[in-house]
Amino acid sequence: MVLASTDNKQIALIDGNNFYVSCERVFNPQLWDKPVVVLSNNDGCAVARSNEVKALGIKMGEPWFKMRALAQQHGIIALSSNYALYGDMSQRMMRILSGFGNEQEIYSIDESFLDLSLHGRQATEIGIQIRQEIARQLALPVGVGIGASKTLAKLANHVAKKRPPYQGVCNFNDMTPAERNAIMASIDIGEVWGVGSRSAARLRNMGITHVLALAQADPRLLRRHFSVVMERIIHELRGIPCLELEEVTPPRQRIQASRSFSAPVYTLEILMEAVARFIRIASQRLRQQQGVAAALHLFIRTNPFREQDRQYAQGITIALPAASNDELLFTRLARLALPRIYRPGYAYYKAGVQLLAIEAAEKQQADLFSVAQTRQRSQALMHTLDQLRQRFGAGIIRSAAENPTPYWQSRANNRSPRYTSRWEELPVAHAG
Fold first, then answer.
1. pLDDT tens readout for residues 191-206
2. Does the structure show a pLDDT above 60 at 420?
3. First CA to last CA across the chain, in angstroms?
4. What is the spatial order of strands in the sheet that 348-360 belongs to?
5. What is the distance between the alpha carbons of residues 283 and 290, in angstroms, rounded to a whole number?
6. Are 389 and 280 in contact (CB under 8 A)?
C-alpha cells in the first residue's frame, strides 16, 4: 500500500505517557520506577497505571479491592486522583505545544494534535524538540506520532510509545512504503483510532485482523457493513485526511456534574446539599463556554453493586421558561423537583445534574414575558460570582443549599498535595 499524496501534510499527535502517574512523579521522585496506580473518585478503581503496574496484568478500571492482595505482594503504591494537579499540568503542557505548530487541537487532558506541515521534512526533528522541551520545563515524558492524517498520527504515536527503538518519536512520513506496511501489518486492528471492541470483533470475523488489512480493504464494502465512519478510517489510514484539526473545541450540548458518595445518603436534605454543589459546578462550566441551558435534569440512585440493599433509581427533567445559566435559578428549581423523585428508606449512592438544550448565550431568544432588568441583574450576579471564585477559589462563595464540609464527599485518603494550584500546598525546598 502506498500513501496518497497529501501535499506534505505532517500531522503530529503528542500524548503524555501514563499522564496522571507522571504528574505525581514530577513532585515525588521517590515514585520513579515504582509500581504506581492512580484511583478514581472515592478510591474506587484504577484510572492510571505506571508501566510497572501494567506489567503485573492490572487492567484499566480494575477495582481497588480486587488488586489489594497483588498490591501488597508487589508493593504497589495507590494514590487518590488529584485532578487539580493534572489539569494544571495539562494546561502548561498545551501552552508549550502551541508554540510548535501553526494549528493545534487539544483532544484530551494529555493529548494534542499539531499541524507541523510548515516544517516539512524537519517534522521529526521538531518532534524530538517537543519531547525535550516538555521534559525540560515540566519533567513529563510524552510520545510523538506523525503522519499524513490524524488517524495515522495516532497510530504512529502508539508505535513511538510501545517500541523503544523509536525513542518516543515515530514519523510514518519518513518511512518507505515497505517499512510502513510492515509496521501496520504487525499492529492489531483494535489499536486503530475509532475502531471499538465490537467493530474489531466483527472485522476479525471478516478476516481483517491487523491495520494493514483494514487499510487495504474496500472502503465502500465496509461502509455497507459498518458506517461512513469506517470508510473514513480506511481513507485516513491510506493518508487521505478526512478529519480536520479543530482549533476551537465545539461547545458541549450537555453538561453533567455527578459524584458517587463516600458514605450512603438517606435524607432528602443531604441529597439536596449534593445536588446544589453539582449545580454550582455544572453552571460554572456552562458559563465558561458562554452558554445557556433550557432544561435541567436531576437523577439519584442506589448502589447497584450492593445486591443486598433495596434498589431505586429515578430522574426528572425540568424545562425552563427561558434558557439561563443562573445557578441560583437552577437551585430553586431543584428544590422543587427533587422531592418528587426522592423516596425515603433507601441508601442513595449517587446523584447528579445535567444541563440540557444548551445554546450560545449571544444567540439566546428572549422570553416575551421576562423582565430585561431581572435578566441583566442575573447576568451581573453570575459574572461577579465567577470573578470571586477565579480569584479566591471555587468554594469561596456558594448557595445556602450547599454544605461546605459534606460528610458524603469523595474519599481521597491518599491524594498528593495540589502543588501548582494551592498556595497552602506549595512544595517546600530545604537548603542542605
1. 999 898 899 999 999 9
2. yes
3. 61
4. 255-265, 348-360, 291-302, 313-324
5. 10
6. no
CA dihedral of 25, 26, 27, 28, whole degrees rounded to 10: 30
C-beta atoms surrounding 429 within 10 Å:
6
d(CA 121, CA 397): 53
- Dihedral angle sign, alpha carbons of residues 112, 113, 115, 119: positive
| pLDDT at residue 139 in the model | 95
Vertex 66 angle, CA 63 and 68, to 5°: 110
Provide CB contacts within 8 A for 236, sequence distance 6+. 149, 150, 151, 152, 242, 243
Q: Using only the alpha carbons of the chain, give its radius of gyration.
A: 25
Give which of 345, 323, 356, 340 is closest to 272, Cα–Cα: 340
In angstroms, the Cα distances linking 299 to 109, 224, 260, 310 are 27, 38, 12, 17
Closest among 155, 148, 145, 178 to 8, alpha carbons compared: 148
Instruction: Quote the pTM value.
Output: 0.74
Least confident segment among 17-26, 286-295, 357-366 = 357-366
Identity of residue 413? N
- Judged by DSSP in three states, 128 sits in helix
Lowest-confidence region among 336-345, 353-362, 421-430? 421-430
Bigger pLDDT: 404 vs 207: 207
In the structure grid, which three cell numbers stand for residue 164, read together? 523503544
Task: Check residue 364 and give its pLDDT.
Answer: 58
State the chain's maximal CA–CA distance in angstroms.
70
In this structure, are strands 142-147 and 169-171 parallel, antiparallel, or unpaired?
Answer: parallel
Residue-wise pLDDT for 313-324, tens only, equals 999 999 888 888
The Cβ of residue 428 has, within 10 Å, a number of other Cβ atoms equal to: 6
Which amino acid, one-letter code, is at 263? A
**Residue 257 near residue 246, CB atoms below 8 Å:** no
Measured from the Cβ of residue 53, the count of other Cβ atoms closer than 10 Å reads 27
Helices 372-392 and 268-288 cross at an angle (nearest 10°) of 90
Residue 412 above 60 pLDDT?
yes
Q: Which residues pair with 258 in a beta bridge?
A: 352
